[in-house]
Please model this.
Amino acid sequence: MLMNFILRAAPLTAFLVFSASAARALPNPPEIVPAQGGPIKITPIFHASMQIEYGGKVIQVDPFSAGDYTGAKKADLILITHTHPDHLDLKAIEGIRKQSAFTAMIMPPAAATIVLHSISIRGANPVFPLNNGQSKTMAGIRVEAVPAYNIVRGPKPGQKFHPKGQFNGYILTLGGKRIYIAGDTEATPEMKALKKIDVAFLPMNLPFTMTPQEAAADAKAFKPKVVYPYHYRYPFDKANENPQQFQKALVGSGIQVRLRGWYAHPAPK
Ligand SMILES: [Zn+2]
Model:
């Protein structure tokens, strides 16, 4: 009887193990954005990192080892916003790039200098430096680099955490939709002047970026259809009310705010 139970239970156990690993294959469920030619899938990974899928292509944005990349897909295109370690992480790039095929990378020149000194990554992976205001089409995806910088905040007087002109936010055009990934920035005039943004990702953590109220004022200025607060904690394990405050500040604005678990799935220890 006991043997009979074990024999019958064994396949079930195997199935359960398989299901459990499949369930944690991606850090969060993908956000679905309807677009021409099929949906855009955007999966929040951690802090400022996300996986974007469209038309069979995979884009990894600011891959970061603090996030759980179990089940993340290898990138056709990697976008890096700037040189700070929560955005430019050579180990994470190494893990998410294709080993035997083409993975293009787009980043500001300051980041390209660092990546191009990493022999292992350099290999077959072309790195394209992009300055503010420049754009490039890679893997069939149009990428526009927009300014991301501090207006007032810095480590000491006369210095900024993110100096003007050095780092990027990005606008991706996929299936006619414009996705804006702000990077680390304050409420710049360039951001407020953006037009026709369908989906936006805005940072809100001090001292590095902006307050939830500043980010909300920003969103009201350029009116994305949908906005996600991201990059809202520091330290990463310290929860705060930033996303909720941001959401509250946008009530009645007509802008849809989506809160997601950007810190719910740190990398497995
Ligand atoms: Zn950052």
